[in-house]
Design goal:
The chain has eleven helices and twelve strands. With about 350 residues, it is of the alpha+beta class.
């Protein structure tokens, strides 16, 4: 079903407000939801609202996200999100990292006791808009088994890297999971009764499967084999173990029935001006982009994030009928008359 972005914005904001999310926080979460849909990552968008509502109502996530400072040492800080919204924790964390980078050239912020933050690209795009190079890492619930193993222990552990793309050019955004495909795509396939491509996942016996339900019982295939496994382990260390969050298979899924998720995040901002004049940087990025695109026919080569920006950045997006019905039913249960 085709849905207008402003409809997603309106109903998302009203649902979040109904469960006690402050206005400023609700705006950030809604912006992250819209970003996900407009970049072709709808699995990280409006469909997660029912999970947020349930978790807040059951005391597994707080509606008000307050960052409590644990350590603050010049360019480095560590905060406790106290099981609030991951989007708010990551956004505020990146804000702090950017301010530190303005002062010290680089800023690093760790977040413990958080939740899934949605789309990694949203936060590094924010850094790029502030003329910074942004990095974000997050660990997540077990989804990937070590190479040679059958039991999932590391999450799909997303990472994002973003930087200004040149003069009047969109930011370059690398937003990736360490699995061959995002687990949200498998959840969506299971919800819609669809199969998944070969090579995405293994069942609980370690055999390849195209059944999303069996895949969710088993493990995801890491991107690039042992390389993806290594990346997933690294993210678990720097976003989970280092920040004091859960790690080593102890992170709970966002939609866990009765446990706190305890995700960890690490945000880093680098001030480009600490290395070279910003105009010089933009001119060199234009040159780099030109050289990259000269490697093939015109219109066939894109920098990371450029294709999704040009393809999906519209006022209308596609959402499955089942997901629309689910959101409308949720809104109705909260006394919201508006429908998508």
């Amino acid at each position: 079903m085709q849905v207008k972005i402003n409809s997603i914005q309106n109903i998302s904001y009203q649902i979040l407000s109904k469960i006690g999310v402050p206005n400023d926080d609700a705006e950030i979460i809604v912006d992250s939801i819209v970003y996900a849909h407009q970049r072709g990552k709808g699995t990280h968008g409006v469909g997660r609202l029912p999970i947020y509502v349930r978790k807040v109502k059951e005391g597994l996530m707080t509606s008000v996200t307050k960052l409590c400072v644990i350590k603050d040492n010049f360019a480095v800080s560590l905060y406790d999100a106290q099981h609030g919204f991951g989007q708010i924790a990551a956004y505020r964390g990146m804000e702090i990292a950017i301010e530190k980078a303005r002062q010290y050239g680089v800023g690093a912020v760790g977040i413990r006791h958080s939740n899934n933050f949605g789309t990694a690209g949203f936060f590094v795009d924010f850094a790029a808009k502030n003329n910074m190079i942004g990095f974000i890492f997050a660990n997540s619930s077990p989804a990937i088994a070590p190479i040679g193993g059958k039991t999932a222990i590391f999450g799909t552990n997303p990472m994002g890297i973003g930087f200004p793309g040149g003069n009047n050019q969109p930011a370059v955004i690398l937003d990736m999971a360490t699995s061959h495909a995002a687990r949200g795509k498998i959840r969506l396939a299971a919800k819609n009764g669809e199969s998944i491509p070969e090579g995405w996942a293994l069942d609980s016996d370690g055999n390849p499967t195209t059944d999303p339900i069996e895949a969710l019982k088993g493990s995801m295939m890491p991107v690039g084999g042992h390389k993806g496994f290594g990346l997933s382990l690294i993210v678990d260390v720097i976003a989970g173990l280092l920040t004091g969050s859960a790690f080593g298979g102890d992170v709970k899924p966002l939609n866990h029935k009765d446990g706190l998720s305890d995700y960890g995040h690490l945000m880093i901002a680098i001030n480009i001006r600490s290395f070279l004049d910003y105009k010089e940087y933009l001119d060199k990025m234009d040159y780099l982009s030109k050289r990259v695109k000269e490697c093939g026919e015109e219109g066939n080569i894109y920098l990371p994030g450029e294709h999704s920006f040009s393809l999906f950045n519209s006022d209308i997006v596609n959402i499955s009928d089942k997901q629309v019905d689910e959101i409308n039913s949720l809104a109705n249960s909260l006394g919201i008359k508006e429908q998508i």
